[in-house]
């Protein structure tokens, strides 16, 4: 039986081969390899993405994790500070906080959407809390209006983690445009992906934008004028050129992901599994299509036997990872995330997934 991949990046490349090959060839012909103020491909992508999001500043960098770290540094979050993060996410979200020297404070998630439970944030706020990093997990948008209201009340910085939510909206407004700043990853498998590691910070705050640019480029805004010790985190010309090509298709691809989600849901609605729940007022872009079932092992066996790839995002809540063992958390501290981690399963999802593939997957699940 033919394999159904979890993500198929080959079809997308085949469909855009002429455009992408010529974009890459231009970068090589211009030897515009390394990012920086003189790289026209990097400048162009930053402009393109700023226009797409309707934000003032896009500052590209080497990957999404760096963008979180650089933003935290730009906001001067460090030792003795606490930052609120969801208990369920990719580790970059909390890792960046720890790398800044601050303490990630984990908040449990909602049982239906698996997004950070906004009602549990306030009880975690202390005198040390400086920021919240909301994660639009799986491409579903958090209620950013409530989060901003809460942040204003407690004078907190909001850095949106949009690594999984390119193009997702809350109340018709794009994720990444609500907070003081946002972080994007362009890892190849994300809804907007480069052909290697890539990321960006976005903000409407010029001071923060300049700081980010400085930190990401060895502490300089002008060549050889190092105002501080920064780091090297640049977007390569090749990735920038590829991203500019792919950005034009992001909305079309997201619509196809939504169509695929609708098709999955229509066949699976009576299959006795918990389907993904779109948050109220959210436009979900289905970076991942995550179902939940109590007896996951049987499902895993069926998919494996039928050559259907799947994944688990994520098998362990962040606070229960070994990295945080010294904090002494138990699953009772995050009951919803702990339970969900044993039930969740991500089905194949990509814009080009065919009706036939969806039908085959759904039929096996219903069987
Ligand atoms: C992918 C991801 C990141 C990190 O992005 P990289 O580009 O891989 O460093 C951060 N947060 C979330 C939620 C992610 O899914």
Q: Care to describe what's here?
A:
With 367 residues, this protein is an alpha/beta fold. It has 2 domains: 9-106 and 114-247, Type I PLP-dependent aspartate aminotransferase-like (Major domain) (Aspartate Aminotransferase, domain 2), CATH 3.40.640.10; 250-366, Aspartate Aminotransferase, domain 1 (Alpha-Beta Complex). The protein has 11 helices and 12 strands. The protein has a 7-stranded mixed beta sheet with strand order 1-9-8-5-4-2-3, with helices on both faces. It has a 3-stranded antiparallel beta sheet with strand order 7-6-10, with no helix packed on it. The protein has a two-stranded antiparallel ribbon with strand order 11-12. Helix 5 links the parallel strand 4 and strand 5 (157-161). Bound molecules: pyridoxal-5'-phosphate. Residues 63-65, 89-90, 92-93, 135, 161, 163-164, 185, 187, 197, 199 line the site of pyridoxal-5'-phosphate.
Keywords:
single chain; 367 residues; alpha/beta; Aspartate Aminotransferase, domain 2; Aspartate Aminotransferase, domain 1; 2 domains; 7-stranded mixed sheet; 3-stranded antiparallel sheet; 11 helices; binds pyridoxal-5'-phosphate
Layout of strands and helices, then pairs:
Layout: H1 9-29, H2 40-53, E1 57-61, H3 64-74, E2 82-86, H4 92-99, E3 103-107, E4 129-132, H5 144-154, E5 157-161, E6 169-170, E7 173-174, E8 181-185, E9 199-203, H6 206-216, H7 237-247, H8 250-268, E10 282-283, E11 289-292, H9 296-305, H10 335-341, E12 344-347, H11 355-366
Parallel strand pairs: 2-3, 2-4, 4-5, 5-8
Antiparallel strand pairs: 1-9, 6-7, 6-10, 8-9, 11-12
